[in-house]
Amino acid sequence: MPLPPLGRIGITVMSVLYGLGALVIFKEHSKDFLATPARLGTVAALALGLIVVAFALPRRPPGGGSGGRVPPPWAAGCGAVVLLGAHQLSTPGWGGLALNVAALALAGGSLLRWSGRAGWGAAHVLAVCGAALVVNAALSFVVEPLGDASPVLKYGANAALMATVLLLLGWARLRLRPHLARPSGETGAAPDAARGRGAERVRETPHG
User: Fold this and answer.
1) Which residue, 2, 27, 105, 187, has fewest beta-carbon neighbours within 10 Å?
2) How far apart are CA 109 and CA 112, in angstroms?
3) In the structure, what pLDDT confidence band is assigned to residue 165 with cuts at 50, 70 and 90?
């Protein structure tokens, strides 16, 4: 099974960093309350199950599916921001749970449907994945920091995080330009074949 562009080393490093961050948050928020072992085990089992399903699903190359309309990348990104924001800002209780499930179901269903169509490309993938980074960076402005951080330090760090995310996404978008400008279905072998045919015609032309 092909791995994402990060490769094995990148996926391993990101997994370790995410685990360390989760451990810090867990220790901070479990000082006053700790769920029962049964609840913790259920959440862990669900998380591991979703990870296994994500890696077990067959990978489809962008733009390699069936026909059908897809939204432009900017619309897909804005929609992802709205749905992920609803997911992150849902309040405790049954109403918040319903909103959370509806937002994630709509997001997942839309991605599953659109990503299988020929018009879905790398720019759509970047827009949707970048939406998650933008939402989390924006939420840092309204989340209480760990420890006793001054407002200047807190909002300065939040602004630096948002600027880093936007610069990273802008750099990634620039990296996509050559691929987006290339006509669909064009490969590197096509120009070579054309040049080869041209050379054959030159050799076959009689010189007078």
Assistant:
1) 2
2) 5
3) very high
